[in-house]
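#onboarding

Welcome to the new folks! Below is a worked example of what a typical request in this channel looks like: someone posts a single protein sequence, and someone else replies with the predicted structure as tokens. Don't worry about understanding the tokens yet, we'll cover that in week two.

Example request:
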Amino acid sequence: MDETARLAAEAWADIPAELRRLAQEGVLFPNEIFWRDHYQYLKDHGYTLRRRYEVDWSASWNTNGLDKYDCEDSHSQCHGLINDATRRDGSYVVLKRLDTTSLSARDELMMARFISSPDLPMNPRNRCVPLLDVIPPMEGSSDAFMVMPLLFDIDMTPFETIGEAVEFFRQIFEGLQFMHNHNFAHGDCKWNNIMADSAPLYSHPPHPVNNHMRRDYAGFQPSPGSRTVTPIKYYFIDFDLSQVFGPNDVRLRTPPWGGDSTVPEHNIPHDPPCDPFPVDVYCLANVIRRWYLDGVEELEIKPKHGFEFMRELVSYMVKDNPQERPTMDQVVARYDDIINGLGEWKLRSPVVTVGESIGIFGFIGHWVKHFVYHLRGIPPIPRA
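Example response:
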């Protein structure tokens, strides 16, 4: 079970039985009422929520004879602060609700505007999710909306080859290097604050909640295409703990901390201020350590074969003493040296979870396909 699925299951289990019963009957959850009440306002601004949030919505499964979970409008966004929408131009986006009376929300909006300022988005190393629009609060409300592209979990489409994961590592390393070079500390570089623009891999747009289905619920989502053939981009999200420092500022911050509870500086009694830049380095390396090198037993995440070439660099990045950790400039330079030492067939090798097997037919099929890619001149590292 991946972390996103685990969190969704826990969120459902935490819902009181009476609310679950009402949801089965077709009643919105309390945190969805806000979106229903803003449906027309958002539509007037060019953003249409899914049918579930229309003012006069009634549950389709009560009249069409289908099981609830076979109906598109049964799927809610468990997180009350975000929802997906269709933009007037037909593109799919995410709306994030921000209470403009909250200092942290205003800071997050300021960060989002900073990274979307005219010069920064053009830099190919900028891997911060772009801010597409800001919708002001409705009259009588303090809730504004940030509009961003609709992204998906990194592992919604599993990595097929070592080279595909190598490109993921490159993008997130260069993305954090870009932020740090602009005196910008992310503050919460955990696994689910990095997302993928996976839509180009699918012949039909995936449903934003039930990714196994097409968005229009006309059928199951066909198998995705190959990242090797169709390179995709990865983005950092969630800047509510981010901070920009001036060139002469003391680079220290105090709690609240990010979601990685293993950061050594964050486990010192009385929470003394710490430099957030080495913390970012630690957290990003810990993503690779936990999801690829060592696994996470309590989350039922198993390590993957073939990534030991990352061990030395990751160990360097997660040193207990933050002063002994490399800067992101040093990380990127060392990573480039590592990747330059990997051969083509290593990069085309399949990503296999420890304790599992792709089987003889899967093995043959994998290598036939990637030998064809080799003959076609498709590189093993799909740069995007």
